[in-house]
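input
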Amino acid sequence: MIRTPRLLLRPVREADDFAAMHAILCQPRAMAYWSTPPHDADDQTREWLANMAAIEPALGEDFIVEFEGRVIGKAGFYRFPDLGYLFDPAVWGRGLGREAVGAVIARGFEVHNLPRITADVDPRNKASMGLLQRLGLTETHRQARTWLVGDMWCDSVYFAMTREDWDQRTA
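output
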């Protein structure tokens, strides 16, 4: 569990989190740059939450993000060192993503002793790329046709931050 000034990042509770996460995962706007199309069936979200709950602690750590007692998304490492996050568009632009993702990055380095953190972003997602850059990750390379989302191929921009970069940033 992680507490920040405005947020609680906690393990998934599949039954409790279903309605809120399904509402997010069904939104075309929220899922526009995600690795899957928006969910159109309850079973998709149930499986997604079950997979999140089943992450082995040695392999990753993913959190449900709460703001003012309401589930607003998720942030974490589905698999170390790959960072991932998804937030309800209703809370975009308020600095909550930066607060949550920044806390996850800190935990990755300070608790899990990761030597490097990476992220993969659709190049059309300028807001997400800006978030990663503000948090200190730098672009390492780009690759075409990395994700088949529905019937459309999407490209990737890769970002990374090393433990040394983190130490210098937080010194």
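quick obs: The longest helix spans residues 96-110.
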